[in-house]
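Shall we go through a protein fold together, starting from nothing but its sequence? Please make up or recall a protein chain and show it to me in full. Go ahead whenever you are ready, and we will take it from there.
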Amino acid sequence: MGGLELQLRGYRLTTAEILYHLPDYPRLLQTFIWQEYDLAPGFPTLRKFLDFWENNIEGRLHSVLVASVPLVKPAEIRLVDACFTLH
């Protein structure tokens, strides 16, 4: 299924910044960026990925910052007060 079709079904482009502890140096944090189409506000695809992470990856999660925006939205219109032509 393509991105536009997913958006028409209510999915939105979701980006998560995942901070996790390095397995060999647990006092250091590393960043991982995850991006996928997902359904807000529950984010089932992200939750499935985070469950996989906790069960299969050694780096313990520190925090997750999520940003999500619907890409298909009404056009934005701005009224112009004046129009100038320069030669």
